[in-house]
Amino acid sequence: MQLSASLAGAMAIAGLGGVVRGTTGFGGAMVMTPTLSLLLGPVPAVLTALMLETFAALAMLPAAARIARWRMIAPICAAACLTAPLGVHLLLTLDSQLMRRAIAATVLMFSLLLLAGLRYRGQQRVGTSIALGAGSGVLTGATSVGAPPVILYLLAGSDPPGVTRANLTLFVTVISLAALVVMGWRGMLSRPDMLTALALSPMYFGGVWLGGHLFGRLDAATMRRGTLVFLVIVSGAVFLV
Do 14 and 202 touch, CB atoms closer than 8 A? Predict the structure, then answer.
C-alpha cells in the first residue's frame, strides 16, 4: 500500500487513539473515527476503528475479565449486541456526508458531556442497564462510538478506577466484535478496508502498549481532560467541514 498523505495522517491518528485507549480503557474510536471518516469515508472509518478496537482489546481481555463486575456489565453487553445490527443498517443506508457529520456530532456531544463532568444520577438497575446497552449498540454499529453512554453510567458507581476500566474493556471488546460480525454478514468487510486496518495496526497497537505503561503513572484526570478538549476541537472541525 502506497504511503499517501491521508494514510500518513491516519497512522498518526491511530497512534494517538491507541495511547488514549491503553491509558483509559476507552476512547480509541472517539479519537479515530471522526478524522478517519473525513480521510477515508464513514464506512471505512467505522470498520477500521472497530477492527483495531477489537483486536487491541483482545489482548487486554484476560486481565479485565478477572476483575470486571460481570453482574453490572453483562446486561449492557447483551442488549448492545442485539441492537448493533440496527446501527449497521443506518451506516449502510444513510447518506455518507450525513453519517460523517453524525459521527462527528456524536463524539462532540459526548466529549462535552464528559468534559462538563456529567454523571448518571439514578440507581444502576438491570432495566436501566439494558436500555443503556440497547442505545449503545445502535451507536456502535452506526458510528463505532458506543462507549460514552456506558462511561457516563459506570462512573456513577462506586467501583475503583481499575474495575471501571476493566468493565469498559469488556464492553468495547464484546460490542465491537458483535458489530464486526454483523458487518461481515452484510458483506461490508472488503479487502481494501482490511488492508487499511492492517496498515494502521502497528501505530495503534504501539499506542495501546504505551498507554498501558502510562496507566497509573500519569495524572488520569489531567490526561482525560486534555483528551476531551482535543476531541471537542477535532470533532467540531470535522462536523463543520
Answer: no
